[in-house]
Please model this.
Amino acid sequence: MTDQKLKEILHRYSVPEIDPAHLRQTIQLAQKELNRARIYGKITFWELLAGQIRYISPYIWIAQAALLVLVFSLLPHLSRIGDAQQTAMAVLSTSSPLLALVAVPELGKSLHYQMWEMEMACRFNLQKLILLRLILFGVADLIVITTLLLFSSTHSPVSLIHLGMYILVPFTMANSLYLFILRKVRGKAATAAALSAGIFLSLGFALLSRFSDAYAVTTLTGWFLLFFLSAWILTREISTLFTYFSEGEQLIWIRS
Amino acid sequence: MWRRLDDNQLIKKIHQGNADALERLIQKYYPEIYRFCYRKTGNPHIAADLTQEVFLRLVKSLDNYIHEGKFKSYLFTIALNLCHDYFRKQPPGMQRLDDFEVPAAENQITRIEQSYVVKEALSRLPDIQKDVVILRFYHDLTLPDIADIIGANLSTTKSRLKQGLEKLKKFFREEDFC
Model:
C-alpha cells in the first residue's frame, strides 16, 4: 500500500460541518478577551509594584517611622545608663518583632474581609497580590533595619555583624510566627492573635536579652546558625502560605 | 482588505487592538483547528469547545508571542496541548471511541462504515504516532513543522510517522480495506 493510497483511505474519515453559531461565539469571546487585554495593557514589574503602594495603608509607613524614632531616642539614653551591649541587644531584639508586626494587619486584610473572590476576579490573582505586598513590606523593612543598624553601631561598642544578628534573628522568627498565625487562624481573630503573639515575642526577647547570660554570650557561629534556621523556617512558611492561597482559590473556583 | 494581509501582519494589527483582524485570523484557522481537535477527540462538541479554548488562549498569550516559526504551527501547538490536557482529565476508560458521532453530512452507510474504520485505525495508534499522522496527512504540514509542534527532533518525528504508517497499513490490510 502506497502512502498516496493510505492518504486517500485516511481522508474517508470525514469531519462534521462547523457550527456557524459556535464560530461566531468564539469570535465574540476572543474579541471580548482582546478588549479586556487592551484596557489593561502590558505593564512592567516596577509599574505593578508602584501601583500596589497606593493600596497599602499609610499607617504602616507611619508606624515604621514611629518605631525608628522611638529606637533613635531610646538607644542613646539607655546606653548611657546600663551596659551598652545588653542595651543594644534588648532594644534591637525587642523592636524587630514589632517591626515585622506592623505589616500583619495589611497582610491579613484578604482573610479578614473575605476578599478572596473579589481579588481573584480582578486583574491579578491573590498569590501575585500577596507576593507584591510581601516584596513591598520586605523592602521597607530592609530600609528600616539598615537604618537601625547604622544608628545602633554609632551608639554601641558591639560589632555590626552582632548587631545585625540581634535584629535579624528575632525578625525572621517573628515573621514566621505571624505568617503561621495568618494561615492557621481564621477571620479577624488572626490579626488579634498575631498582634498578641508579637507583643509577647517582643517582651520575651527583651527579657531574654536583659537577663539571660546564655543569650548574651552566644557566639557569632551560634547566631549565624540561628539566623539560617529561622530564615529556612520563614522560607518554608512563605511557601506553605502560597500553597494555602492556591488551594483557597481552587476551593472557591469549585464552589462557584 | 484583510484577505491581503499575511499572518504576521494580522498579528501586528491584533497587537494594536484591532478586533477585525482577530476575527479574520479566527475565520482563517477555525476550520483547520476544529478538524484537528475533532480527529483527536472524536466528538464534535468537545472539538468545538477545545477550538474555542485554543483561540482564547491565543489572545491571552499574544503579549508573549514572539514570531520564530510559522504562526500556524504555534496554533497547532496550543491545540495539541489542550487536547492532551483534555485526555489527561478524563477518567480512565472514558476516552476516544466511546462517543463516535456520525458526520451530519454523511448519509451513505458505506461512507459511515469507512469513516468508522479509519477512526478505529487511528485510535489504535499511540498518541505520539497519531499526532504526527494527523498533522502530516490531514493538515499537510511538513515534518520540520510537525517536529516543532510536538516538541521532538526531526529524526524522532520521522520515526514516529514511519511506525504509525506501518501500523495503519497493517490494520487496513487485515481489514481488507482499500
User: Anything to note?
Assistant: The two ends of chain A are 54 Å apart (CA to CA). Residues 44-255 of chain A form one domain.
